[in-house]
């Protein structure tokens, strides 16, 4: 079990030398992969487009309104510089901002010029421009060819595979389907005239009076994909932490990049200015509606006053300029202002309780509230609400910043509620005192005649409304002034501009580098897999690692039509290897062997490892050395020896063991001096029982009396048990290992037999050896392991005729025939 575990562990070891040898033999795969890889890299490099980088510099500072002071009624600040930079960066990369820019430029329309290897973005490089109708379904994805015919006409064409196509409304952002003409479609149109088809709603205008003829393509692309692509605009603070940011964008069309960057700045600047003016605009809107109502009220009071004067004929300067009337008018005006403030506070409190969006809160100054705490708190609340809305475009709702903003909003709301309570208490006190004064004056007025009282009442109402109208006009002028003085916090230092700078191409060498890496990786991977999965014995070195059994000899790879190579080519390297094995056997023979005879058993793990080949040639070298040698075929299951010696196998060991003939009847001459042969005979039904019989042992013992060497060709040890029975009669056992054929795990069987000493004088013969299969081990072992290899000049039988030599021999034979 220990030997088996040792073999199993060794088979799992990665052989680096074998790996390197396999790798060197895969040089052709490396060259193939290099050729294919470099060719493919060259092909891919033709598709690499030139790209350009465009950028602009923008300053974001706190450009406060020069008209804004602590006494100004309207407040329109929206945060400090740091917050503005962060907000601007977030907005530039937001989806909503990209949508606005894409919509304004109609970047969902793609202009295409067909090239040799790839299509080119032809935006602003065509003699025409396409204006899409906003609220209409446009065919999406299908390219339409436009062929400019002359200065007035062009032809649109397409090849539609069906009668329906996907469509998109780039205004409402709704998807749908449109009818299209299936098959090839062509139609002529004129420049500047609307095209109203079921699937296309555009107007195509010329970009110049003289137009260039040619053919281009255009299509309506994926809207959301376009928006998402431009969200990737690169933004850097230069230097970090400053108020200056750099917008940069990379693409294949310089004009498209320039337009997007510059339009992006304009759109953000416009939006930021609209937010700044939002309070002034809403205030002006409210005041305008109030002025209309006040004007109508003044007109009604004026008509009422004139009507009363015409009826009563009361024109008394003392009445008109009555001190009572002046005071009462002033008090009532003050009361109206107080009541407006109270109404504002009540509405503000209800608004804060019921709403969650506080960006639409009306400015307190509209009703004359100028308390710094109230005005500041409302302005801060609006600012935080605006900030929260802006951040929603780029952050998740559960982001920590929203919890912080909500906490600040709630804190400010509590402050405003306290301010409302205290301010209302103060206003109610002032209102109570003012009502008391008004009551006193009204009591004095009641002493006047009825007609005068009525006149004063109408006059007083007219004056109140006129004063209110004048105040609203003043506040509107103030709001207009603030709005006009508002400037954007975004200032473009350097706009993006196409100054003719050349573009760049992605490093084409990277494709060649990848090709080289893949080219080397392919043979390395193949060699690694082959080495890792290789479970065969390839060299004597492998045997030394896998088994304690020694290697007696190495036999080279044979290139001969029969197994009788020693007889046919006695001076070949293989013949010398068998002579070396013969010499090595002298060191392991039992010197006390009976009858001074030597019995050698040749076996293997499985069929095909060369035991019959070795048995024949080993017997031949012993016979050629003058020793009386007998070759016995004991593989009763698959006999082979008779084919090589061209002898009938009708009489042999199996006949003798069943007592059909005598011993002398089965011994035949091999046709080689001193070599006899005993064939296995016909295949019996019970070969194992015959081999295990006493008659088989007696047969071998009888052979020993008449021969110096007996070579036993046995069945494979790894398949049947016959060889173990035969091994009892052998002085030495040769176990065949064939290069690249014998599996490593097969050695478990022989190792176990060796450990238990079940086989006497066991040695390995490494067969079919080739330097091409040794993975770097070479001929260091030589043919005839332990005996040494012959040098040049001794193996003339191994020299093969070259191609020219064969031609010379043919020519000589022809001349000999003629002579």
From TrEMBL:
Q: Give all residue intervals belonging to the AAA domain.
A: 598-721
How is this protein annotated for GO cellular component? plasma membrane
Q: Which Pfam families match?
A: AAA_31 (PF13614)
| Alphabetical UniProt keywords | ATP-binding, Coiled coil, Kinase, Membrane, Nucleotide-binding, Transferase, Transmembrane, Transmembrane helix, Tyrosine-protein kinase
State the Gene Ontology terms under molecular function.
ATP binding; identical protein binding; non-membrane spanning protein tyrosine kinase activity
Q: What is the E.C. number?
A: 2.7.10.2
Sequence intervals crossing the membrane:
26-43, 510-533
Q: SUPFAM superfamilies under this entry?
A: P-loop containing nucleoside triphosphate hydrolases
| InterPro entries on file | AAA_dom, Bact_polysacc_biosynth/exp, P-loop_NTPase, Wzc-like_C
* Catalytic activity entry: L-tyrosyl-[protein] + ATP = O-phospho-L-tyrosyl-[protein] + ADP + H(+)
> What CDD domains does the annotation carry?
BY-kinase
This chain belongs to the protein called non-specific protein-tyrosine kinase
Protein species of origin: Nonlabens xylanidelens
